[in-house]
């Protein structure tokens, strides 16, 4: 199968692997973009389309379909932040984020939802974001859905998803089918290890090739360390090259001088870069209100094989429990089913030794449902905080308070009931002391009494949002509705870090749509041309 990235490189795309640089450099460009994920990719595409000279800076490697072997042992160290073992500072929450060209879009599971109207309405009421609504954003979502092949997934769901659908339907709980951004998907189920068949329409396969074909330059294994500024103008971005191991510094530096600087390092990387740069933050908002959609998990043993590693990972969802209370009331949650692969499952599952091995022996018959808790709307759900730790690298504090645990308990109950309704033989919350239950009656009693605390109850996240929140004024946000920094004129933040709350839906399409709008506005301003028609 042809690897379009290798073809492009052979045809002369400009890619600099900074780990191989022999000397430090200073480069002049129009725009430098930090990060190549959902935000950085769309930005590079749209700015390069207006003829601007663009450079992309990515600390991860450039890997493509020829490298994607459907192996967890290769994928996690190569493509993920901290080898897929990134955690909050207290180690209570495991965080999955991409660290490669394409960012998290290279490894994500392709679920595609627009930002819900009630989320825009909340942002209008609480953050003064009057310009953003479901109506005003509709054409931006539509254009990105078209561009990235976001379509209904017509293939029958895999067994893991069918169990969620069957159990929910028995209980009268509405479910829906998830749209996916794939073109010619083989239904393999290994999206999280990089798509081996080039079906996933990630930034790696779409926006970045488009930008490179127009002459943009991609630097990899290069970490953006610090923006230099005087007054309200950023003058340069200083970067450190990494060695080929992707961990240690090589000692080479690259300085970019540019007209405009775009930060799109994701919701942990972006606030960290702005903190290392000591950008003005008089209201101390930077790095605050980081949201995760904290996820709790319920595992069920079925009579027949489920083989939850095979087939499109998330194709069925239920929003039933998002709409039980007002958006700022008790936390609602969205139900989905993740892909199960042995390393990810083994490292998430409770227990150790013989007990753990026993659970793993049944791996092929396991169904897993997860609940994404909608954080950031209830006044007691203030999210986490990014700060700088050793080596000035980011760490995230995310206190798991009562408001989260209350929702977690409801979610664990709801998932167990659905799994029993679908015919589960045995259900356990992913929780250190949960004994596992053989009936819904036993689960209802047991889960109601389960101590819910950090480390006992597993909490994970693949949706990091916030930290550079948007608002109408500098005392309420870090950037405005266009992603423009309130204090530095030629600095934009264009990624998932700008959301002032979580979303209650998987974030990628929200980022694509918002960044398409904001990068188009920026492209028009910098190029002096009308808004570009999205190519
Ligand atoms: C396993 C997994 C599954 C997911 N599944 C879905 C899904 O099905 N649907 C959905 O909507 N969302 C999903 N997501 C989430 C979605 O992919 C992300 O929300 C989205 O990609 C975030 O975009 P971003 O631009 O903010 O950051 P990212 O896409 O994470 O990109 C940030 C990039 O910046 C780079 N970077 C950071 N700091 C620096 C620095 N200082 N210097 C240089 N480079 C830097 C990083 O290496 C990274 O490549 C999933 C995520 C994961 C990890």
From TrEMBL:
Domain Glucose-methanol-choline oxidoreductase N-terminal residue range list: 78-295
Entry keywords, A to Z: FAD, Flavoprotein, Oxidoreductase
Pfam families: GMC_oxred_C, GMC_oxred_N
RNA-binding in keyword set: no
PANTHER family noted in UniProt: LONG-CHAIN-ALCOHOL OXIDASE (PTHR46056)
UniProt family annotation: Belongs to the GMC oxidoreductase family.
Protein's UniProt name: 6'''-hydroxyparomomycin C oxidase
């Amino acid at each position: 199968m042809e690897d379009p990235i290798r073809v492009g490189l052979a045809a002369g795309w400009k890619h600099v692997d900074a780990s191989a640089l022999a000397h430090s450099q200073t480069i002049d460009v129009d725009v430098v973009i930090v990060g190549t994920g959902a935000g950085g990719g769309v930005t590079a595409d749209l700015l390069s389309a207006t003829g601007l000279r663009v450079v992309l800076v990515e600390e991860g490697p450039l890997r493509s379909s020829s490298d994607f072997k459907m192996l967890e042992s290769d994928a996690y160290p190569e493509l993920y932040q901290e080898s897929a073992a990134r955690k909050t500072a207290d180690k209570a929450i495991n965080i999955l984020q991409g660290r490669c060209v394409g960012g998290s879009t290279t490894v994500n599971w392709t679920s595609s939802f627009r930002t819900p109207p009630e989320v825009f309405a909340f942002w209008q009421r609480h953050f003064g974001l009057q310009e953003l609504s479901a109506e005003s954003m509709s054409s931006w979502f539509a254009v990105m859905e078209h561009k990235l092949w976001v379509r209904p997934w017509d293939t029958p769901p895999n067994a893991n998803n069918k169990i969620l659908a069957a159990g929910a339907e028995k209980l009268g709980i509405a479910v829906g089918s998830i749209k996916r951004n794939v073109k010619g998907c083989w239904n393999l189920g290994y999206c999280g290890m990089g798509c081996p068949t080039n079906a996933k329409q990630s930034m790696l396969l779409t926006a970045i090739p488009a930008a490179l074909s127009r002459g943009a330059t991609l630097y990899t294994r290069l970490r953006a360390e610090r923006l230099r500024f005087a007054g309200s103008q950023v003058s340069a971005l200083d970067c450190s090259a990494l060695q080929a191991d992707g961990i240690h510094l090589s000692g080479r530096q690259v300085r970019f001088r540019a007209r405009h600087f775009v930060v799109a390092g994701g919701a942990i990387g972006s606030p960290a870069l702005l903190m290392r740069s000591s950008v003005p933050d008089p209201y101390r908002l930077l790095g605050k209100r980081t949201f995760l959609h904290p996820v709790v998990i319920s595992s069920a043993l079925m009579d027949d094989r489920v083989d939850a590693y095979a087939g499109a990972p998330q194709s069925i969802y239920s929003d039933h429990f998002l709409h039980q209370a007002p958006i700022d009331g008790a936390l609602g949650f969205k139900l989905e089913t993740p892909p199960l692969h042995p390393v990810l499952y083994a490292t998430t599952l409770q227990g150790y030794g013989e007990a753990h091995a026993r659970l793993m022996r049944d791996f092929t018959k396991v169904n897993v449902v997860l609940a994404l808790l909608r954080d950031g709307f209830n006044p007691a759900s203030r999210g986490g905080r990014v700060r700088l730790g050793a080596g000035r690298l980011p760490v995230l504090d995310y206190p798991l308070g009562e408001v989260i645990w209350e929702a977690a308990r409801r979610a664990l109950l709801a998932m167990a009931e659905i799994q029993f309704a679908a015919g589960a033989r045995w259900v356990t919350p992913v929780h250190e002391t949960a004994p596992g239950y053989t009936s819904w009656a036993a689960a209802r009693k047991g889960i109601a009494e389960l101590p819910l605390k950090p480390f006992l109850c597993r909490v994970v996240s693949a949706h990091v949002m916030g930290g550079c929140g948007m608002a109408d004024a500098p005392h309420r946000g870090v950037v405005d509705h266009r992603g423009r920094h309130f204090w530095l004129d030629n600095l934009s933040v264009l990624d998932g870090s700008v959301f002032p709350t979580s979303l209650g839906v998987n974030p990628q399409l929200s980022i694509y749509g918002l960044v398409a709008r904001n990068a188009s506005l920026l492209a028009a301003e910098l190029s002096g041309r009308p808004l570009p028609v999205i190519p």
